[in-house]
């Protein structure tokens, strides 16, 4: 109710900034019998809602006047973690205890963590934590190539592939199951379909979590900065009217590459591994150019690529990953004069092994052997 009051006031006065909204709305919330920090959080939430509305209007998207439907309680103040429980204040020295399970207790007992806020909804509680992370000094780079059937990670020295074909099967099967529903009632059909959708999402996300976790662990072990390509706009390749079949399009669009990137990024940030995001221009041609001589590669069977001028033969994903890691390394070297302070370790490392020697050190045999 407080959030909706704030939204109403914000809409009337046409304000979206936190400062002006709090000066306008705070006094109107005096009637609510709640601790003042909840009022502040309500104002902040209303402010977020109003800001995103403003953004949509700016882009010309039709928006109705916003209204917070789901009850939720957010606060960064007043709560406490004691006796394996979260103690939520209700005002007037009254409290409400939410017991924490063993896993949460284990996570939260880490002294490096700071608990910042909690969010309470009808069915869930989330606790927001933060940590000071020491950047790991990386001496190498390694690329991540996201494909429909696998994620490939590595550089010239090692290549690892994580099979994701199971994810495709899960999606296919879910679609088949949902298509086979013969219930006439739309509401019930929707309910069951959403249940299967949830199941699919959970199963796939578990697969992806396993892969990304191992990738980040390998990166920490080898002290490698992770290089990620820019594949923005990939969905445009599989739109209606591009001359592809429905099945094919739905398969390509069920590909959760954004989720993979999100997981890798947050896991890397959490453990202090630097991430290098290649721009669109830098990503271009990573899977068509020979990593040894720079010649354009020819397509072979089974996603194999081969080079006419030096005879290199390698898997498409392996080539992409090696090229990516190399381009990332170039970026490392380029960042030398600009941010010396922030990436001191990386800069020193790059000066130790310059890019040219690394390229010379690769040979064709090694590439095709290390594919597995
Ligand atoms: Zn070549």
Mean pLDDT: 82
Q: Globular, elongated, flat, extended or rod-shaped: what is the shape? A: globular
Structural domain tally = 3
Number of helices: 13
- Percent of residues in helical segments? 40-55%
Q: Residue ranges: pLDDT <50 for 5 or more in a row?
A: 336-372
User: For the CA atoms, what is the radius of gyration?
Assistant: 26 Å
Order of helices and strands: HHHEEEEHEEEEEHHEHHEHEEEHHHH
Q: What is the total tally of β strands?
A: 14
Strand order of the largest sheet: 9-8-7-10-11
Backbone structural class: alpha+beta
Report the bound ligands by name, code or SMILES.
zinc ion
Strand content: 15-25%
Largest sheet: 5 strands, mixed
CA distance, first residue to last residue: 58 Å
Helix/strand layout:
Blueprint: H1 2-13, H2 18-25, H3 36-58, E1 72-75, E2 80-82, E3 85-91, E4 94-99, H4 102-108, E5 113-121, E6 125-131, E7 140-146, E8 150-154, E9 159-163, H5 165-179, H6 186-222, E10 224-228, H7 246-253, H8 257-271, E11 275-277, H9 280-283, E12 298-299, E13 304-306, E14 313-315, H10 316-334, H11 344-352, H12 355-360, H13 364-369
Parallel strand pairs: 7-10, 10-11
Antiparallel strand pairs: 1-5, 2-3, 3-4, 5-6, 7-8, 8-9, 12-13, 13-14
Helix pairs in contact: 1-3, 2-3, 5-6, 6-8
Bound molecules: zinc ion.
Zinc ion binds next to loops.
Question: Any descriptors?
Answer:
binds zinc ion; 13 helices; disordered C terminus; 372 residues; three-stranded antiparallel beta sheet
